[in-house]
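User: Can you help me understand a structure? I only have the sequence.
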Amino acid sequence: MNTQELPKDRSVFLSRFVGSNPETDSKEDGNLIESEGKVKNKLLSMWNNVKYGMKLRSNFSKESPVWLLGKCYRRLESPSSDSTELGTDVAAFHSQGDLVTGDDENFEAFKKDFFSRLWLTYRREFPILTGSNLSSDCGWGCMLRSGQMLMAQALVCHFLGRNWRWDPEALPGNREQFIESVNHRKIIKWFGDKPSKNSPLSIHTLVTLGEESGKKAGDWYGPGFVAHLLKKAVNIASEENYEFDALNVFVAENCTVYIGDVLQENVDADGKWKSLILLVPVRLGLEKFNSVYAPSLTALFSLKQGIGIIGGRPKHSMYFVGFQDDKLIHLDPHYCQEMVDVWAPEFPLSSFHCRSPRKLHIGKMDPSCCIGFYCSTKEEFFNLVDTVQSLIVPSGKSNSLGTEYPLFIFDKGFSRDSSFSPQRLPPKDLEFSVSSTDVDIEIEHFNLL
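Assistant: Let's start by predicting it. Here is the structure, written out as tokens:
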């Protein structure tokens, strides 16, 4: 009697009876997981965007000056309105009609300046991040996005200049404007959401570099950690792209900028000065922001070398670009948008610019942050050193021994000659007090003064 031999692969044997195919099932399971991941991403981004858009307006005083990355706009009065508001609806950046209009030159200049900053936010449906199944950074990547915006501002200063403004309606009318348009798109491409050498500052690159220090996709990244990731990313980019050869990122140690290290590191093989991106991670308080630092911190936005500050509220990163009175003006990365293929011809630019400046009371700022500067020449660097000395020491705040508490310091020597942190934190009784009723308020509402 002939007997039928059982197949060695039991799954194949069973499939003859249940009518299934293991290879097809595996593909279907993979597609199901991928589909579930996309649904989860969309639901998370929808909820996140509801939270992001709940506070729709930030009002600006008509009397107080506004500082934005070294530029001062003294009066923001619009003659056609009793109030001065910039619409901050999440859709506002798509329509000029949502903005207050008026003839006041400073008001219009402020809007154009803010709108020209690059806005890098959460994205969804991009290629899977290494070591994970994540195709979105929604909910965890805000500090990486804030760091990208800080670096983008440095690159704008380097390739386009601080006075560059973007007009979405204008077409390049001459060679200079054409070059500006090319450089504008080129900078955005470097931050494209894909694992590519052509996008050396992408979130994929930063996450991969973070893995070397024990971080992974989905983790929280602090401002100091992000500063070092940006330095590594630029160093690697310079090996592949000559346009990064003339740039150097220097990260301060222990709240100290060692001038000797800067001068030694910030030159090329021929001894020529590189454009310097100086990042200074600091902690301005023990558990919460210390009020003694407020005047010094806001004063930094008056410096022409300033490129902003990455920080925010606890577990809620923001990119601070200016201030008015005791409110910090910022770009918020928490609006989740669809990935844009920046390598497609004439890709849309609107989602990379924001018409909606927001404000946060300085007392609600997390004490951990990173301050950025851009110095194109050695003269600008020494000018920064001379200028900032009088700004970083809180006025009249010292103990009985005359000890001062600077935000950070410049040291003429080298880091190798120092084995301790020179920063001294003020006593806790000087820390900023925030009432318990205000702690959970995400964004302040500001009435016209």
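Now, to help you interpret it: The CA atoms of residues 116 and 166 lie 5 Å apart. DSSP finds ten helices and 15 strands in the chain. Let me know which part you'd like to focus on.
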